């Protein structure tokens, strides 16, 4: 048997409702010691140099621990356990994307790239002058609308609750509520981009296919905020991956899909 000495510390990550199974070799027989379990754990059994347990269902990431005591009641092993809220993973992914891409979402960057592209085409075809192009570029100001301010507030709330959720201070339902409120504010904010693209296409009689249609929203399957990626008016999924239709393949190069790191 291993000699008794300084308390050993281990760290373990498990999903909710999952079983844990740990080999333990200490300076005493398991039957002589004891295992003291913290909250959110059940069916904790320490027997024959093996510790087993089951993590509870949780509504947020939780931290707990198990301490293994020798016959004198001294702590010989401390196992720090982080329990993942696997049922809330999709909600966390959505909230994380909204928070990470906040600057891009507020600036309507996907629409802005297409807007700049259409102006480049108009300039190269000599339908507008360089000065007119610069003026039109400067007129892109989604921050001037109340919809921008409303979405900005909701994205800030999402960031705050996401931080609280990840540290166990907010529940899955709270995260769902604030991120859903942010998603609900996306269409009104996106109307600005759709209107500006439609105006440029009409005023310049642009040869670029009309790409102003579709609602700006969070698209679950592509895990991105977009009016085009995941919108079957522009393409479809092939082998699980999004592909633009032939008419709109130029969008792959012009508009860059937002991705989670």
Report the strand count. Answer: 11
Order of neighbouring strands in the sheet with most strands: 1-7-6-3
What does the radius of gyration come to?
27 Å
* Total of helices: 8
Shape by Cα distribution: elongated
Residues in helices, as a percent range: 25-40%
* Spatial separation of the terminal alpha carbons: 46 Å
Q: What would the average pLDDT be, to the nearest integer? A: 89
Largest sheet: 4 strands, mixed
What is the domain total for the residues?
A: 2
Structural class: alpha+beta
* Relative strand content: 15-25%
List the helices and strands and how they pair.
Blueprint: E1 8-15, E2 19-23, E3 34-37, E4 41-47, E5 50-55, E6 62-69, E7 75-84, H1 89-100, H2 102-106, H3 109-124, H4 130-138, H5 146-166, H6 172-184, H7 186-203, E8 217-219, E9 224-226, E10 235-238, E11 241-244, H8 250-254
Parallel strand pairs: 1-7
Antiparallel strand pairs: 2-5, 3-6, 4-5, 6-7, 8-9, 10-11
Description:
With 261 residues, the chain is of the alpha+beta class. The chain has two domains: 8-84, Immunoglobulin-like (Sandwich); 88-230. Helices cover 38% and strands 24% of the residues. It has eight helices and eleven strands. Strands 1-7-6-3 form a four-stranded mixed β-sheet, with no helix packed on it. Helix 1 (89-100) crosses helix 5 (146-166), helix 1 packs across helix 6 (172-184) and helix 5 runs antiparallel to helix 6. The longest helix has 21 residues, at 146-166. It is elongated, with a radius of gyration of 27 Å.
